[in-house]
Design goal:
mainly beta
C-alpha cells in the first residue's frame, strides 16, 4: 500500500483520512550540531528541548522539518540540515538510535518523502533531531548561540490541524 497522501484531500491509502484518524503524540528532541547522547535517555530521563507534536504515521520528514522550523526560528536559515533518528529502548531499557533521513531548508532531497511508518516508528518511540545551522549563519549570531524557541519555554505542543 502507498504511504503518500493523495493530493490535498488528506486521504492516505494505508491510514485513511487524516480528519477521521486520531493523530499520535510524537516526542521530538532537538539538539544543535549533533544527536543527543544515548545516556540522555537513560532510566526515564529525556533531554531538554522537547517538542510534542501531534501527527500521523504518514507524516513525512519534510513535514516534521517545517514544524520544527516554526518553533526554532533560528533553524530557518537557508541550508540548515535536519538529521532524523528514531530512538527506542531494547528489552533491558537501553536506548538505541536508528538514523532515518536528512532534510534541508530550501532544498529538496530524497529523504523529504520518507514517512514515519516507512521508518517503522512504533508508538512510544522518540525522534531525535540534530540540526546543523550553516556556518555563515552561526557567525552572524556571534558564535554557537543556542537555537531560540518561539511559543513559550516548556511543553510546547504543535497541532497540525
Amino acid at each position: 500500500a502507498s504511504t503518500q497522501s493523495s493530493g490535498s484531500s488528506g486521504i492516505n491509502a494505508e491510514y485513511g483520512d487524516r480528519e477521521k484518524t486520531c493523530p499520535l503524540l510524537l516526542r521530538v528532541f532537538v539538539n544543535e550540531g549533533q544527536h543527543n547522547l544515548p545516556d540522555a535517555y537513560h532510566r526515564g530521563r529525556v533531554p531538554g528541548h522537547e517538542l510534542q507534536i501531534y501527527t500521523w504515521k504518514d507524516a513525512t520528514l519534510k513535514e516534521l522539518t517545517n514544524l520544527i522550523k516554526d518553533v526554532y526560528t533560528s533553524a530557518s536559515a537557508k541550508g540548515t540540515m535536519f538529521n532524523f533518528a528514531l530512538t527506542f529502548p531494547d528489552k533491558r531499557g537501553n536506548f538505541h538510535f536508528k538514523e532515518v533521513g536528512t532534510t534541508s531548508v530550501a532544498h529538496s532531497g530524497p529523504d523529504d518523502k520518507i514517512t514515519l511508518s516507512s521508518c517503522r516508528l512504533a508508538i512510544g518511540d522518540y525522534l531525535d533531531v540534530a540540526v546543523r545551522v550553516p556556518t555563515e549563519d552561526r557567525r552572524e549570531r556571534g558564535g554557537r548561540a543556542p537555537m531560540r524557541r518561539s511559543g513559550g519555554e516548556r511543553g510546547y505542543r504543535s497541532r497540525p490541524y
